[in-house]
Amino acid sequence: MLFERLINTTLALLLLVSFVSCSDDEPATQLITVKLTDAPADYEEVNVDIREIYVNLGDEGDDSGWYELSGVNQGIYDLIELSNGIDTTLVTERIPAGDISQVRLVLGNENSVQIDGIEYALSTPSGQQSGVKINLNETFDEGIPYIIVLDFDAARSVVEAGSSGKYNLKPVIRATAEAAGGAIAGNIQPVEANSIVYAIMGEDTVTSTPSSESGDYLLPYLPAGNYTVGIEPNDAFESARIPDISVTEGNLTEVDTVFLTPTE
Predict the structure, then answer these.
(1) Do 155 and 127 share a domain, yes or no?
(2) Residues 221-250: what's their mean pLDDT?
(3) Quick one: 203 and 163 in the same domain?
(4) Do 173 and 139 fall into the same domain?
(5) CB count, 10 Å around CB of 103?
């Protein structure tokens, strides 16, 4: 149920996309959204100070593969408010397509826990100052939107330091990923038609430009559903439509090559 709700929320945002261009020179990318949620814990508040998020595009332990996500919604998040299926979005960004082995969550110093109305500072071990590394090991395909959920276990992450009323934060986090839509790919000939191709579902449209060399096109980040693909070439060719194309979660739907008819 959690992932169904997460996916529906993200798809509502993706439906606002009205133009996506493709270029022969642009590298393959993927759209990811990172969300934060928590398992229930017997505390009044567990506040964590989110500062930075990185993904490792290399292998585990390969420090050269870390990629910093920009536009993170920095702030202090009460994990107790994010339990029982509630989540919040930390960042949405388009990054290079491929494998993600790990996620690294960097916390600030304003972490605290509230017990019986008293707030205690949470100390973070020095070894985690550079960030908490969470294994993921998922492959992300070009043109498919994904949601990465960081499931914080507050009950196991807050550790009392002896009997002195001091507490440490030793984050226990599980990362999972789920596709939140699909994509359509195909080819239009001849390339001299300089076509514009678009996918339509209801009143929502995503547009792309085929490669000027091969005629290949990609219509990415599409919510699941049935689409009509429309092709608008220059005046020397007739327009074309391909109805009833099904897009499913996490899949690339390939359609047959379209050969445009010259105008008379």
Answers:
(1) yes
(2) 94
(3) no
(4) yes
(5) 23
Range of the structural domain that residue 227 is part of: 182-259
The string of pLDDT tens digits covering residues 14-68 is 443 433 444 445 667 888 999 999 988 899 999 999 999 999 998 888 888 999 9
Specify whether the CB–CB gap between 245 and 226 falls below 8 A: yes
Q: How far apart are alpha carbons 39 and 89 in whole angstroms?
A: 16
pLDDT tens-place string over residues 191-224:
999 999 999 998 888 898 898 899 999 998 898 9
Beta bridge partners of 216: 187
Is residue 87 within 8 A of residue 149, CB to CB? The reply is yes
- Nearest-angstrom CA–CA distance, 52 and 106: 5
Residue type, 23: S
DSSP collapsed to 3 states, the chain: CHHHHHHHHHHHHHCCCCCCCCCCCCCCEEEEEEEEEEECCCCCEEEEEEEEEEEECCCCCCHHHEEECCCCCCEEEEHHHHCCCCCEEEEEEEEECEEEEEEEEEECCCCEEEECCEEEEEECCHHHCCCEEEEEEEEECCCCCEEEEEEEEHHHHEEEECCCCEEEECCCEEEEEEECCEEEEEEEECHHHCCEEEEEECCEEEEECCCCCCCEEEEEEECCEEEEEEEECCCCECCEEEEEEEECCCCEEECCCEECCECC
